[in-house]
Design goal:
The complex is a heterodimer of chains A (735) and B (298). By secondary structure, chain A is an alpha+beta fold. Chain A is built from 23 helices and 23 strands. In chain A, helix 1 runs antiparallel to helix 4 and helix 13 packs antiparallel against helix 20. Chain B is built from twelve helices and no strands. In chain B, helix 2 runs antiparallel to helix 10. Chain B is globular, with a radius of gyration of 19 Å. The relative contact order of chain B is 0.16. Classes of the chains: A alpha+beta (735), B mainly alpha (298). Chains A and B meet through helix 1, helix 9, helix 13, helix 14 and helix 17 of A and helix 2, helix 5, helix 9 and helix 12 of B.
């Protein structure tokens, strides 16, 4: 067994292995929905689905996975504790993963036999004296050691910083790359916060007057220049020096300065400056005295004037660059807060002041510090997210204001480290193959990016060819709605022949499409229940989906009606569920093109079935809701499941009759159908019955762009529910 | 009661709870499954994620286990069957169970992973929601018993169980106890579909076994606490005292699991809003109610 745990088998280990082979926890690639849509009941085959690779014993591959997915699956496999194993269903060809330990055909009986084999294998081969290492590039890293204060100090061995003497902290880097790739635990660990944007400058930690746009070394002391973020080069040039200047000058003249020029500013929003005490109109915090901004006629002398005008300048520029605040304003802040403190402590060292709390500031600053500790820790947590401390000068303790300098601001106005976390392509709450990168600000989603094409299998390359075999090749386009696209290809071929179809074939087409729709919606509902933690819904919808996939004839489908009706009643009565979904993931046409249930949940009567004579005959009316939110989409899909079952009942068949096999003279073919997720169109150029360029437009491709609309600004849990409610099938995004 | 007997009882309780939980999830009684699952965990590697906060990572599962176990020491199964009858027992339960939050935040922080970390902080928010609703209903229980000794609390219920005497407090305490034991629909820190296992998602092998055992014992402990505070503890006809305690505790456990299956996971914001805007006023009303009844009856 390739995934055996190293160790000499002995009686205890054999006993444990035999006992543990009874309970098999599986991590399913691409996801449990694909397995169910293929008619596989994992639970009754003795496989328990788990949501993290750490708890899995078996990696279950359902069907041939794409290259990107296999890469992700290899990371998952590498994270599973040994003894671990791979079970492949269907034809398997692995490049990055070891070959499956056991393979099974696409059938329940085959799966059950394979599970029995796997149990045998695990009971006997769980421990082996010599085992092969499994390593994937993505999780291979090197460790280097850096100084938390001096990012330019990087060495390959642990030690202390030659500049400040602090212990170096390890960080991981992918071999041969500059930037750390998100790898590691779970489905990828926290990666960098937002990267240094345009406007990164390089400055010498010791000589702040040295600023250049390229990395390099300081012409004065020869130290490596460190990057910092700011868009105002000129402003920057003065920042550090002014800071030092203010420390010295302000300090000296504090006693003499009168309070005539006293202003009050918000510790978090420096642009708020008032002449009287009060609270910040943005965050409500108490304003703190800002004593260094005094009248120009202040008698304190030229040095002070210099400082003042600089500060003033800063505040002005700041007001114009709300988001550049970063280093400049926090420094203004720092100076003003620290000087008082410096005074009381009688300490001239800029380095020591930063860590000490200011007694007279506790109402404002301590609160901040506590809040910002999040940011500080989050940074440490990411462990490679080094912050730019370059302008900090000689090291020592950092104040929280300084630590959070340069960090983005949350909606509550607090600067915080943002963490970029990958969700997918094998994240349990999202369809397998869907790859998102969410930027998390605490547990609020600050940004959401969908990376299309993770599930891409390049099926389009296999489409040109004999047009009559196209339905069969289209059948596996959407693994979550098997056969739906076969109906689309079939329809296109029929259209191009120009011959009128007999009624039986028309009914078969309607039945097959509606069956695919109900399977797809039920699968979505089960996955949605899983994401919501609504176990009853997950298991009930999953069971119904399996029985529909396995239904041999129309009467078997008819028996399911009761179950679907119960589903609708229960979800309708469940007020906690309705409350959970109402108002989540609202999308309107302003966000992008809506189609399918997403459009119908927005109250639009968009359904290409409504214009189809075969459906009109059956008295079809699209189901709509007006909420535009996750609740409305669930209700539309629930209604459509029942409607599809009724349509199957009316046409009394769901067998897709083979398409007209006669010769086709048309130069092109085209068809549009209402797929489970919305309207899909296929175009193909034909040349004597051979498809040349085949192009399919799918609803999921259109909906991918909605992800940022439903996710950004929402709490993580709500963002995931919103994204899931769009029912995006990554399989449809193939081109 | 000897300590060995006490630990044995907790283990049997944890095993039974595991069987009940499995029954509610898959609908079948599989009495061997918890044992083989435990054997499976012992046979597996116990991995340490890269660059963890090692101390927090290692300490979290044992801390959870210790907190859950210590809380159970002051809960009586029968008049003599208690490890220590503290005079402040009812309050002690609340104090010790506060460490559940500490353990989960540590488990979230320790492994150095985004999902676990979000999950750990979520539980900190959850504590803010449930903690007052643990302690305020206990006030009502203590008022009636005129004692915080759990033996006295049970004896005070001889005329009428607290579940009927102070129903508001009972409902609030049960919900808060479910949130404390992070049972669905309050499973925010483990959130299987949402955060890939959350705080427990990075633990494997023996460490995961400890974590799961600790969680089961925690469920037993809160169910026993509900029994002692509200369901008359060992009080009941015919059967021996300890049997009544065990039956009531397991019934409470099963009810919590079955109810959790029927509900979607609660939103953190809703949990906080309901706890503070609705729960705390109701808890105060409960205290007032108990006070009025005590005065009128006396």
């Amino acid at each position: 067994m390739t995934g055996a745990r190293t160790g000499q088998p002995n009686w205890l280990r054999r006993l444990l292995a035999r006992a543990s082979a009874r309970s098999l926890a599986v991590f399913v690639v691409p996801d449990a929905g694909v397995a169910r849509a293929a008619g596989l009941d994992l639970l009754s085959a003795g496989l328990r689905i788990v949501t993290t690779p750490r708890h899995a014993r078996v990696l279950l591959l359902v069907g041939q996975v794409s290259d990107d997915l296999e890469r992700a699956a290899a990371v998952v496999y590498a994270q599973m504790p040994r003894p671990r194993s791979i079970l492949g269903v269907g034809e398997q060809e692995t490049h990055r993963l070891p070959a499956p330990d056991v393979t099974a055909p696409f059938s329940q009986a085959g799966l059950e036999a394979a599970v029995a084999d796997l149990r045998q294998l695990l009971a006997e081969g769980a421990f082996s004296p010599d085992t092969a290492d499994f390593d994937v590039d993505a999780v291979r890293t090197e460790t280097e050691y850096v100084c938390p204060m001096h990012p330019e100090v990087v060495q390959s061995e642990p030690g202390s910083c030659p500049i400040c003497g602090m212990d170096l902290v390890p960080r991981e880097v992918a071999p041969g790359t500059e930037r750390h790739e998100p790898t590691g635990t779970g489905h990828g660990m926290m990666a960098h916060g937002p990267e240094a944007a345009a406007g990164t400058e390089y400055t010498c930690p010791m000589h702040p007057e040295i600023v250049q746009s390229e990395p390099g070394s300081c012409p004065i002391c020869g130290m490596t220049l460190t990057p910092r973020q700011d868009t105002h080069a000129e402003q920057d040039e003065h920042t550090t020096s002014r800071l030092e200047a203010s420390h010295h000058t302000d300090h000296g003249m504090r006693e003499g300065s009168d309070t005539d020029g006293q202003t009050y500013s918000c510790p978090m929003h420096p642009e708020i400056v008032r002449s009287e005490p009060g609270s910040c109109p943005i965050c409500g915090m108490r304003l703190v005295p800002q004593q260094d901004v005094v009248k120009e006629s202040d008698p304190a002398g030229p040095a002070m004037d210099q400082t003042d005008s600089d500060h003033a300048h800063h505040r002005v520029t700041h007001a114009h660059h709300d988001h550049v605040i970063a280093s400049s304003t926090s420094h203004v802040e720092l100076a003003s807060v620290d000087e008082r403190h410096t005074h009381t402590m009688g300490n001239d060292e800029p380095s020591t002041e930063h860590g000490i709390h200011h007694p007279d500031d506790s109402h404002g600053m301590d609160h901040n510090s506590a809040e910002m500790e999040h940011g500080g820790h989050a940074m440490g947590h990411g462990d490679h997210a080094m912050m730019d401390h370059s302008s900090h000068g000689g090291g020592g303790f950092m104040s929280m204001v300084a630590m959070t300098q340069g960090l983005p601001r949350s909606s509550d106005g607090l600067p915080m480290e943002w963490a970029e976390a990958p969700f997918g392509p094998l994240f349990p709450g999202l369809p397998g193959g869907l790859m998102l990168t969410l930027t998390l600000d605490g547990d609020t989603v600050a940004d959401a990016q969908a990376l299309p094409g993770t599930a891409r299998r390049d099926l389009a390359a296999t489409w040109p060819g004999d047009v009559h075999t196209l339905p069969a090749r289209f059948a596996s386009l959407d693994l979550l709605a098997p056969d739906a696209y076969a109906v689309l290809a079939w329809q296109a071929i029929q259209g191009s022949t120009g011959r009128v179809l007999d009624e039986e074939a028309q009914r078969g087409r309607v039945g097959a499409l509606e069956r695919a729709r109900a399977i797809s919606h039920l699968g979505w509902l089960a996955a949605f229940g899983g994401l919501l933690g609504y176990q009853w819904l997950e298991s009930e919808a999953g069971t119904l989906q399996l029985s529909l996939v396995r239904a041999a004839n129309v009467s078997a489908v008819a028996t399911m009606r009761e179950g679907v009706q119960r589903l609708i009643e229960r979800t309708d009565r469940n007020r906690m569920l309705r409350r959970r979904l109402a108002g989540i993931g609202v999308v309107t046409p302003a966000a992008g093109d809506l189609t399918g249930p997403v459009a119908r949940a927005d109250g639009q009567h968009i359904d290409s079935r409504a214009g189809d004579p075969a459906y009109q005959q059956l008295g079809f009316h699209p189901i709509t809701r007006s909420g535009s939110d996750a609740l409305a989409r669930m209700e539309v899909r629930l209604g459509e499941i029942l409607q599809s079952l009724d349509l199957i009942h009316s046409v009394n068949t769901f067998t897709l009759v083979a398409s007209d096999s006669g010769p086709i003279d048309a130069p092109a073919m085209m068809a549009t159908l209402e797929m489970p997720r919305g309207q899909a169109t296929v175009h193909a150029a034909l040349e004597s019955g051979t498809a040349q360029a085949v192009h399919v437009m799918t609803p999921s491709t259109a909906h991918l762009g909605l992800i940022p609309h439903v996710a950004v600004g929402a709490e993580l849990a709500d963002a995931l529910v919103g994204i899931a409610s769009l029912d995006i099938s990554p399989w449809e995004i193939d081109q | 009661m000897t300590v060995a007997l006490f630990i044995g009882m907790l283990l049997v309780g944890a095993y039974t709870v595991a069987v009940i939980e499995r029954w509610t999830v898959i609908g079948r009684f599989e009495p061997v499954a918890p044992l083989s699952a435990a054997a499976g965990l012992m046979a597996r590697e116990s991995l340490v994620p890269r660059r963890p906060d090692r101390i927090l990572f290692e300490a979290a599962p044992p801390l959870l286990l210790v907190a859950a176990t210590l809380a159970a020491t002051v809960l009586p199964l029968a008049p003599g069957a208690i490890v220590t009858d503290l005079a402040t027992g009812a309050l002690y339960v609340n104090a010790v169970l506060a460490y559940v939050m500490v353990a989960l935040v540590m488990a979230g922080w320790g492994p150095n992973g985004a999902y676990a970390m979000v999950a750990g902080w979520r539980f900190l928010g959850q504590l803010v929601a449930y903690s007052m609703l643990i302690v305020m209903p206990i006030v009502g229980v203590g008022m009636r018993a005129e004692s915080l000794s759990n033996i006295d609390v049970v004896r005070s219920q001889a005329p009428l169980w607290n579940a009927l005497y102070q129903p508001i407090g009972f409902v609030l305490f049960v919900l808060a106890a479910m949130a404390l034991a992070f049972l669905p629909p309050f499973d925010l820190p483990t959130a299987p579909g949402e955060l890939a296992g959350g705080v427990s998602g990075e633990y494997t092998g023996a460490r995961l076994a400890i974590f799961r055992l600790a969680r089961l014992i925690l469920v037993v402990t809160v169910a026993l606490a509900i029994t002692v505070f509200y369901l008359g503890g060992w009080l009941g006809p015919v059967l021996p005292d300890w049997v009544w305690s065990a039956v009531k505790t397991l019934a409470v456990t099963a009810a919590m699991f079955v109810a959790g299956r029927q509900l979607p996971r609660i939103r953190e914001a809703d949990l906080l809003a309901w706890s503070w805007k609705l729960g705390i006023p109701l808890a105060l009303a409960n205290i007032a109610w108990v006070g009025i009844v005590l005065l009128v009856v006396a």
